[in-house]
């Protein structure tokens, strides 16, 4: 055109602005307006509308509005508009900024034909009156502009002006107004607009129903959203890609499997394929619902139809990875592809995540090492994922190695990367290494954040190294980072470990000025410190405050129990234990142990047994601490020392079912006989060889419950197995004979004891005495009592 002397017109400029804008070249599009102005051509309404639309789509709402208003008064002003501030969509792929001078000099004025004008005005608007647009498309653009800018009143004013001026409205007009109202929470106004649209004889199109479908879904009204989807066909329209994508996303997000499958079946009947963007969404729904076979079949069907993009594969792999389904994720990762299509680095990254979630660290590392061989090089995210994964799994040496390689490859680790390694070192107690990484990041110019300092301070606090903890607290302050609750809590913990009350109190009082006040960990640390120092009233003050706020946890209750119990305030300790139990804070082995220990100290042995049963019923396995309490219960419950020693020996040797035997004995000792017999059946029915200690427990359990016949049958079975009765066996048999009034049995045991066939034993003597008393033979009980005195007096005489 320039060579042939053909000057550009409004139509030329309008098309140039339009195509540059649609290509994402916003700066270049606006430079054509500069050229237009210098040529002396004032934009007509179509050109103006195009400019406003390009600015709107670039997010430059204020400039779009300003350009429109200037046009209305016959001006075109872009003089102070910073063209370099406008982002082109292709800036990300490296397009260089356009020089206005270069653009104008090389493209615009290669030939003459311009008229120099300093400030172009519309020659048709000489009376200074305000120009009004007349085209429906212009009003549609303006409504959309003000809607996206959040200026609802301006959008409504434009709509009203259309009505006032008699400008024809079309489907786009109503769709734009409906979306503007609905997306800003005015759904009822949007529905009113739909009614008005139909009253004006303007038929809603598929996009209209798509808009309502999304609006209803966003508002949680799924029935209304599905009704919109159905209505599209009812009114003779056809769902488009947007419709299907929207309805599938809405249903899949809510895991409505049946409804999703119905929609997909309808699409198949209409020979419409599921949009690629929707494939990961459907698979994620199936995975969330545990329908892995359906997810696999669905994916295979679509792989037969078309190759998936790398982005889609990443989303599918991630859906499996989030649920720890590494094998399924791996199948997608290594699945069939078109010839020449290599795996994208993001696919490797998300596969590393899948292995990491499954704690398959060797597989993740192997994948990382092999990716270069397949033509894909790790990026910064790859290294970060590996470092975070190894650090989270306490494989800190591997994480440190990856960190070194990352730097060698020219990547600069960010604070988040360093903090993961430092936190891992601190957690493992390797504080010199943690400090080394901290010094390295500072040397590289990476500013530490509160997580870094929190890890270091907490690490030194755990070891009771207050000086080092305070050193990093001061460094944190020097970097201008405000201490948060976590950091201050760690310092309180440090002071607590070394018994520094004043330092802890000062920090705790300071935390009260923070939003939310001291957290539960800080409060528990203070209670613990007061408990160690025996300061009851101070500890109770904090504890009562936590209870009042409803934030006291198991640690709070346990620490107060510890304090009261150590000071001999057993009634108060029991009150706290009861409240802890009623509050539902018995959630793990440690909390059960503390309450049981408190009951045991106070002699509430039956309550101990009930808690033990509750613990087992909730499938919380007793630990060493639990058995320590159980042995205390057995001793306090009067079980002979020899029987307790025998149980302890079996437990410590790790004999099969030894733990069950101890539990059975506890239930019997505290009178919970039904639980005892149920527990007893566990080892009696086991297909293992039992020694005499287990038969002793069974004889004791049956005898204590009054089932003497079963107890004696156990004794006979023991003999049939070739096991000789021991001291504990005779003690338990004496008890059974006494309850059943079987004096002959008692006399046999007493005779063996008297004539030294059984080594004299105080526990056995007492068992026989108690048995005679139980059988109402107090005379015989007195006789045995005298014999016991004589036997032990004789053994104590000097040789």
Automatic annotation (TrEMBL):
Keyword Ligase: no
Repeat keyword on record: yes
Keyword list, A-Z: Repeat
Record domain PROP1-like PPR: where: 359-465
Spans traversing the lipid bilayer: none
Domain of life: Eukaryota
Pfam families noted in UniProt: PPR (PF01535), PPR_2 (PF13041), PPR_3 (PF13812), PPR_long (PF17177)
Annotated PPR repeat ranges: 9-43, 135-169, 170-204, 205-239, 240-274, 344-378, 379-413, 414-448, 449-483, 484-518, 553-587, 588-622, 691-725, 726-760
Entry similarity comment: Belongs to the PPR family. P subfamily.
NCBIfam families the record matches: PPR (TIGR00756)
Protein name per Swiss-Prot or TrEMBL: PROP1-like PPR domain-containing protein
Source species: Vitis vinifera (Grape)
């Amino acid at each position: 055109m320039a060579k042939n002397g053909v000057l550009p017109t409004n139509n030329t400029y309008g098309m140039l602005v339009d195509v540059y804008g649609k290509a994402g070249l916003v700066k270049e599009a606006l430079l054509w307006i500069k050229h237009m102005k210098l040529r002396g051509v004032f934009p007509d309404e179509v050109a103006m509308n195009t400019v406003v639309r390009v600015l709107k789509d670039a997010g430059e709402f204020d400039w779009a509005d300003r350009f429109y208003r200037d046009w209305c008064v016959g001006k075109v002003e872009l003089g102070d508009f910073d063209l370099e501030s406008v982002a082109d969509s292709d800036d990300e792929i490296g397009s260089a900024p356009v020089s206005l001078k270069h653009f104008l000099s090389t493209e615009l004025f290669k030939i003459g034909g311009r008229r120099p004008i300093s400030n172009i005005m519309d020659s048709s608007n000489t009376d200074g009156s305000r120009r009004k647009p007349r085209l429906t498309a212009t009003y549609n653009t303006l409504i959309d502009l003000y809607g996206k800018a959040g200026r609802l009143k301006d959008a409504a004013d434009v709509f009203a002006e259309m009505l006032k001026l008699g400008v024809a409205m079309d489907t786009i007009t109503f769709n734009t107004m409906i979306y503007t109202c609905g997306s800003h929470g005015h759904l009822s106004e949007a529905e009113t607009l739909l009614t008005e649209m139909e009253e004006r004889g303007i038929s809603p199109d598929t996009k209209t129903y798509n808009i309502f479908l999304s609006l209803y879904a966003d508002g949680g009204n799924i029935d209304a959203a599905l009704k919109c989807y159905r209505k599209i066909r009812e009114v003779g329209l056809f769902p488009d890609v947007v419709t299907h994508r929207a309805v599938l996303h809405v249903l899949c997000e809510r895991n409505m499997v049946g409804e999703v499958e119905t929609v997909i079946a309808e699409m198949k009947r209409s020979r419409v394929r599921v949009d690629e963007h929707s494939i990961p969404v459907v698979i994620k729904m199936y995975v969330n619902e545990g329908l892995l076979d359906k997810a696999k079949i669905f994916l295979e069907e679509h792989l037969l139809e078309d190759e998936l993009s790398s982005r889609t594969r990443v989303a599918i792999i991630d859906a499996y990875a989030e649920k720890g389904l590494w094998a399924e994720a791996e199948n997608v990762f290594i699945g069939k592809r078109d010839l020449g299509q290599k795996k994208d680095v993001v696919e490797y990254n998300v596969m590393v995540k899948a292995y990491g979630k499954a704690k398959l660290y060797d597989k993740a590392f192997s994948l990382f090492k092999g990716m270069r061989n397949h033509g894909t090089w790790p990026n910064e995210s790859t290294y970060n994922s590996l470092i975070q994964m190894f650090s989270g799994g306490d494989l800190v040496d591997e994480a440190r190695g990856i960190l070194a390689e990352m730097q060698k490859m020219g990547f600069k680790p960010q604070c988040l990367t360093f903090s993961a390694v430092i936190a891992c070192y601190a957690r493992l107690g390797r504080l010199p290494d943690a400090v080394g990484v901290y010094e390295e990041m500072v040397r590289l110019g990476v500013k530490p954040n509160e997580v870094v300092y929190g890890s270091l301070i907490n690490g030194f606090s755990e070891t009771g190294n207050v000086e080092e903890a305070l050193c990093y607290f001061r460094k944190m302050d020097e970097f201008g980072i405000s201490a948060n609750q976590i950091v201050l809590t760690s310092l309180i913990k440090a002071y607590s470990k070394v018994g520094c009350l004043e330092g802890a109190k000062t920090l705790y009082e300071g935390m009260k000025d923070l939003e939310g006040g001291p957290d539960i960990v800080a409060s528990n640390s203070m209670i613990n410190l007061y408990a160690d120092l025996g300061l009851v009233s101070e500890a109770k003050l904090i504890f009562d405050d936590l209870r009042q706020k409803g934030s006291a946890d198991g640690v709070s209750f346990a620490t107060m129990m510890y304090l009261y119990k150590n000071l001999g305030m057993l009634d108060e300790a029991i009150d706290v234990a009861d409240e802890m139990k009623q509050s539902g804070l018995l959630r793990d082995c440690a909390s059960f142990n503390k309450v049981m220990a408190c009951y045991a100290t106070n002699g509430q042995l039956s309550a101990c047994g009930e808690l033990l049963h509750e613990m087992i019923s909730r499938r919380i396995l007793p630990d060493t601490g639990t058995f320590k309490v159980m042995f205390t219960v057995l001793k306090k419950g009067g079980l002979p020392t020899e029987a307790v020693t025998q149980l302890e020996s079996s437990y410590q040797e790790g004999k099969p079912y030894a733990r069950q035997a101890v539990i059975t004995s506890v239930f019997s000792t505290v009178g919970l006989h039904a639980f005892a017999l149920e527990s007893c059946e566990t080892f009696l029915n086991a297909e293992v060889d039992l020694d005499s200690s287990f038969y002793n427990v069974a004889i004791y359990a049956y005898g204590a419950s009054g089932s003497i016949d079963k107890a004696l049958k156990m004794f006979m079975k023991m003999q049939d197995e070739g096991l000789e009765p021991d001291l504990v066996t005779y003690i338990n048999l004496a008890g059974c004979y006494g309850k059943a009034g079987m004096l002959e049995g008692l006399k046999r045991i007493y005779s063996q004891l008297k004539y030294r066939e059984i080594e004299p034993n105080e526990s056995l003597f007492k068992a026989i005495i108690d048995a005679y008393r139980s059988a109402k033979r107090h005379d015989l009980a007195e006789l045995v009592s005298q014999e016991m005195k004589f036997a032990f007096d004789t053994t104590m005489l000097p040789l």
